[in-house]
Amino acid sequence: MFEAASIILDLLISLIEFVGLCLKFILRKAGFSEQRASKLVNALAWLLLAFFLLSLAALLIKKFLAIKAGLV
């Protein structure tokens, strides 16, 4: 089970890296400098990571409150 989760996580990370490289390539073709395109892609990655972590925290809090209220 752990090996399957590890493989899925690796594939997800590879997909995210590929999308980042594609986005950086598109920005370079649109006229952005290499440094500016990298900064923009990094900012977007941090934004997505923050969104994911906040969503995960909200789900955990919701689950904890449901357990505490006896709904689960």
In short:
By secondary structure, this protein is mainly alpha-helical.
From the structure above, extract its key features.
72 residues, 2 helices, elongated
Could you explain how this protein is built, in words?
By secondary structure, the protein is mainly alpha-helical. Helix content is 89%, strand content 0%. The protein has helices spanning 2-29, 34-69. Helix 1 (2-29) runs antiparallel to helix 2. The radius of gyration is 18 Å and the shape is elongated. The two termini are 25 Å apart.
Order of helices and strands: HH
Number of H/I helices: 2
Shape: elongated
Q: What is Rg?
A: 18 Å
Give the fraction of residues assigned to helices.
over 70%
| Major sheet size, sense and barrel closure | none
**End-to-end C-alpha gap:** 25 Å
Q: Report strand %.
A: under 5%
Task: List unreliable stretches of 5+ residues.
Answer: none
Sheet/helix structural class: mainly alpha
In oligomeric terms, what are we looking at? Answer: single chain
